[in-house]
Design a protein that fits this description.
With 71 residues, this protein is mostly helical. It has helices spanning 22-34, 36-53, 56-70. The longest helix has 18 residues, at 36-53.
Length: 71
């Protein structure tokens, strides 16, 4: 889809659209433009999600987990 489907939770931490579908892109963009406070809270949730899931500490924990499974 249009966006990072692995990272974005549609309507929660962002909005996705069907890749190559300009009509769907415009539809999602209109939704975003009409939802001021909803967008603000989605941005905050996206930030918190990214900080918790993609932090250096989380990455190190994942690497250690992989290492431990191998040895």
């Amino acid at each position: 889809g249009g966006g990072h489907m692995e990272i974005i939770r549609h309507g929660d931490t962002g909005w996705l659209y069907d890749h190559g579908n300009i009509t769907d892109f415009i539809t999602q963009l209109h939704k975003i433009m009409q939802k001021g406070k909803v967008v603000d809270s989605a941005v905050q949730r996206a930030y918190m999600h990214a900080c918790s899931k993609y932090s250096s500490a989380e990455h190190a924990k994942n690497i250690i987990s992989i290492y431990n499974r191998l040895y």
